[in-house]
Amino acid sequence: MSSDPTLDGMPLEITESIVAFLPLADICSLRLTARNVSVKSSTGVFKSHFRNKRIALNDFDRLEQAVYIAGLQSCSSLLESLTLVADRAVFDGDLQQGGKTRAQLLGRALELFCLNSTRGCLPSISLVVDGRVKEDRYSPYDMAVYMDQQRQAPQNERSICETTAQSFNDTLQVIAKHNLPIEDLNIFGNLSGDSLHCDQVTSLLAKADLSTSLQGLKQLSMSLTYYDANDTVHTQQASFGKTMTQGICQLLQLCHSLKDLKIHWYTTPPSLFNRNGSRDATQSEEHQLLTRIAESCQFSSLERLTLRGIHTTAPALLLFLRLLQLRSFKMEEVHLSPSF
Q1: Are 141 and 331 in contact (CB under 8 A)?
Q2: What is the pLDDT of residue 245?
Q3: Rounded Cα gap, residues 235 and 230, in angstroms
Q4: How does DSSP classify residue 146?
């Protein structure tokens, strides 16, 4: 009998050490060499490749790969978080490949991930924007340079506002259409300069029923703004600001089981102040955000709250906090204005 070591006879610890240096494609090839090797190379390192997945929303090939992986129960059952990446490159949203649209492929992938999940739901969904140059990122609290960056986007790229709007609408409409429950939803809350214009929340809720999908939501993180660089007229109308706030409240009203809430606010640039120095209607409504939420939403299960970049008043903040029984409360760049 030969005393030479064989791949099949290597101890589990050595096999795991080898696998740690291999990309996923090579690990998959290694698993095909022998039954014992397959078992030994399918442990922690291999499984870690499926716990956190990224899907490029604009890429047909990536979406098809996601559908394939989601259909493998042994892989998709390991999923803990799913990041949906939107690219700023201009593309035709209705384009088809193989008779299927991007929305159909995304819907099928999310359905399978949900079906094969050990939790019976989508554990975590995060929306992010990719494909931006370094100079395109700005302060997580100040939008003073937001207008210039939006208007200077190259012709082959959409603005950040357009990109976040489309990815938000496409994703949430798919989730609503298939009634997919979610535990954790992160809407551009990564402090990287991405934010969702509030009118997109109002618009989405008018055409999609998210009550089933959000009723079990436990964690919600949102990065929002009233400001749209392409619309400087409506932002100064009182009805505009109130409609935006109502949309946020309607979304929060659907989250009956919420335990962790993070609201990150991009403040309206000083350039939108009225010439006489007073705040426009949008900023006035921004100060009432917490009051509107307190008056219309009930958070019986909320334990953790994080507020970032919000402009409000001390009475509004106190009223909001009195209605909650929190275990953790964090504030960053929260500006308290005098109330009259």
Answers
A1: no
A2: 82
A3: 10
A4: H
CATH architecture classification, 50-337: Alpha-Beta Horseshoe (3.80)
Task: Count CB neighbours of 23 within 10 A.
Answer: 9
Task: Report the alpha-carbon distance of residue 209 to residue 177 in Å, rounded.
Answer: 8
User: Model confidence over 235-283: pLDDT tens digits?
Assistant: 445 555 677 788 899 999 999 999 999 999 876 555 444 444 444 555 6
Residues of the chain with pLDDT under 70: 1-5, 89-99, 131-158, 191-193, 227-241, 267-283, 339-340
Half-sphere exposure of 65 (CA within 13 A, CB side): 12
| Residue 133: closest CA among 154, 147, 119 | 154
- In angstroms, rounded to a whole number, what is the distance separating the alpha carbons of residues 221 and 236? 27
Tokens of 150: 């939006």
Cα–Cα nearest to 170, from 226, 120, 208: 208
User: What are the sequence ranges of the domains in the chain?
Assistant: 1-49, 50-337
Q: Quick check: 266 and 141 in contact, CB under 8 A?
A: yes
Phi, psi of 153 (to 5 degrees): -65, 135
Mutual angle of helices 289-296 and 314-322, in 10-degree steps: 20
Phi (first) and psi of residue 220, to 5 degrees: -135, 125
Residue with tokens 């088809």: 96
Q: Which two tokens stand for residue 308?
A: 């970032």
So what's the pLDDT on residue 275?
A: 41
SS3 233: coil
Please name which of 81, 83, 82, 87 lies closest in space to residue 59, comparing C-alpha atoms: 87
Look up the pTM and report it: 0.79
Task: Count how many residues are written for the chain.
Answer: 340
Three-class SS of residue 177?
helix
Other beta carbons within 10 angstroms of residue 3's beta carbon come to 4
Backbone angles phi, psi at 152, to 5 degrees: -95, 10
Residue partners of 266: CB distance under 8 A and separation at least 6:
140, 141, 142, 143, 146, 195, 223, 224, 225, 227, 309
Strand partners, 96: 101
